[in-house]
Amino acid sequence: MGSNFLSVILLFIAVASPNSGLPLRTQHQLLCLPVVKDITTPHLTSCYYSSNVSLSCFPSSSSSAWTTLDGFAQQEEEEVASLNPAASVEEEAVNLAHKIGKSIRRPGAMSKARVYADVNVIRPKDYWDYESLTVQWGDQEDYEVVRKVGRGKYSEVFEGINTTNNEPCVIKILKPVKKKKIKREIKILQNLCGGPNIIKLLDIVRDQQSKTPSLIFEYVNNTDFKVLYPTLTDYDIRYYIYEILKALDYCHSQGIMHRDVKPHNVMIDHEQRKLRLIDWGLAEFYHPGKEYNVRVASRYFKGPELLVDLQDYDYSLDMWSLGCMFAGMIFRKEPFFYGHDNYDQLVKIAKVLGTDELNAYLNKYRLELDPHLEALVGRHSRKPWSKFINSDNQHLVSPEALDFLDKLLRYDHQERQTAREAMAHPYFNQVRAAEASRSCTQ
């Protein structure tokens, strides 16, 4: 049965396109993919999301539903439509957006990470030179597909089983994309393997005929964040944000930016209080002075640096994204900054953080917005965080929570707390105390 697993992938890609709309069973029949029956595994309710794959919740046996939310910058219009079909932008604003050009960066005022800036300078080239990676392929016969759980432009995601130990796993089958991008994701996952709260890459396999690669990941019994977050207590939020910070500080210390932090990419097994940061498809190695693509991260979690075309960004991008995620959790407002497009996203941020602060940021890094975008942003005064407190969320909001949030959601990426600094914030006093107590009893 295992031999059928990847040998039909080319046919799968050709026939079961992302827009085919075929029932899963029909797709299996069309493609002759093996469906494992009567296996004894937990109800698989994990949500695994790839930068190339729509978010999909692994349904339990009692449900066949799964959620899609595209995280690609290239497909943002579809994302908004799927989230809110009734959402519309005024025609004048839409026409204006078509005229907007990139921001202009005058010479000088280059930016460099405050921490871990030289990690990849010090380490040998083979640590970060993913293009030279030689992949060690595992045996595809060790894995069988249980069911399809997600699809996207570049990948297909399956619930699977490792037949050598009967353990559940997640199988991400990659459609033809640049080898460079695949190697980058693999190299980063390998470099981070064993790090705190980092999703574990178990194996890499490929079909011998089609050469189609697949990534095999550990399984997490996740609860969809839209279901889980409304049930979290004040302490739960502190605990899980602290766990994310562990993962971020680790990857940053290894010279790697995640570049797509958001709820969809944080798997939580609430019963086990286990968290994993997933989707390293957009992650990249940090090199001081290098200019990176700003078309990364999902719109609602994009840092201002991306929205104003500042390309020499760094690890602090992840801290902004975490701040957006944290704000959504404590204020029960998801997403916290809800822009209709990238330009409107900057407008939504400016309406909270103010335009005086935005202009100070632009001046510091010698950036000039396109006049049309400047007009679109307008002028706004800064809103105090207390304006977002209401009867539904007041039990989650404390002075230390607002202070922590304020240290993350800063226009100036160099002013944001680093992951390591954030872990020392008073907001996490209880969490650190509980962790120290557990360590003493072990």
Automatic annotation (TrEMBL):
Domain Protein kinase: 143-428
GO biological process, any: regulation of cell cycle
Catalytic reaction(s) noted: L-seryl-[protein] + ATP = O-phospho-L-seryl-[protein] + ADP + H(+); L-threonyl-[protein] + ATP = O-phospho-L-threonyl-[protein] + ADP + H(+)
Keywords assigned: ATP-binding, Kinase, Nucleotide-binding, Serine/threonine-protein kinase, Signal, Transferase
MF GO annotations: ATP binding; protein serine/threonine kinase activity
Record-listed ATP binding positions: K172
UniProt cross-references to Gene3D superfamilies, sorted A to Z: Phosphorylase Kinase, domain 1, Transferase(Phosphotransferase) domain 1
Top EC class for this record: transferase
PROSITE patterns in alphabetical order: PROTEIN_KINASE_ATP, PROTEIN_KINASE_DOM, PROTEIN_KINASE_ST
Entry EC number(s): 2.7.11.1
A single GO cellular-component term on record: cytosol
Transferase is among the record's keywords: yes
InterPro entries xref list: CK2_alpha, Kinase-like_dom_sf, Prot_kinase_dom, Protein_kinase_ATP_BS, Ser/Thr_kinase_AS
Signal peptide segment: 1-21
Keyword Transferase: yes
Domain of life of the organism encoding this protein: Eukaryota
Family, similarity comment: Belongs to the protein kinase superfamily. Ser/Thr protein kinase family. CK2 subfamily.
Protein name: non-specific serine/threonine protein kinase
Species name: Araucaria cunninghamii (Hoop pine)
